[in-house]
Design a protein that fits this description.
By secondary structure, the chain is of the alpha+beta class. The chain is about 50% helix and about 20% strand. It contains four helices and four strands. The strands form two sheets. Strands 1-2 form a two-stranded antiparallel ribbon. The protein has a two-stranded parallel ribbon with strand order 3-4. β3, α3 and β4 form a beta-alpha-beta unit.
């Protein structure tokens, strides 16, 4: 079984289980799955093609985690950044292309 298929299957198998706690709030795998679906629709809407390099700035929020999963499903190259790296964003964007 391919890694992406395995990840999707595992998320669904544990849909009702707690996935993360963020800002003192619990999020299930099902919560993440719904957000992944929303991100996949957005990626399609923005015409983000498979293999494209995508830089994201975020923390470990449900939104950021689900975006990373959606990008994995879309087979993108992901450049995750935090605000701490902001002074170097231009350099990182150049390197990623």
């Amino acid at each position: 079984m391919r890694s992406i298929e395995y990840l999707a299957k595992r998320l669904e198998q544990h849909a009702d289980n707690q996935a993360i706690i963020y800002d003192d709030r619990s999020f299930s795998y099902n919560d993440l799955i719904r957000r992944v679906d929303q991100w996949q629709a957005a990626l399609n809407g923005y015409h983000i093609e498979s293999g494209a390099v995508v830089a994201i700035t975020g923390d470990y929020s449900p939104a950021a985690i689900s975006l990373i999963i959606a990008l994995i499903f879309n087979r993108n190259i992901i450049v995750p950044l935090t605000r701490l790296a902001e002074p170097h964003f231009a350099e990182y964007f150049d390197i990623s292309h």
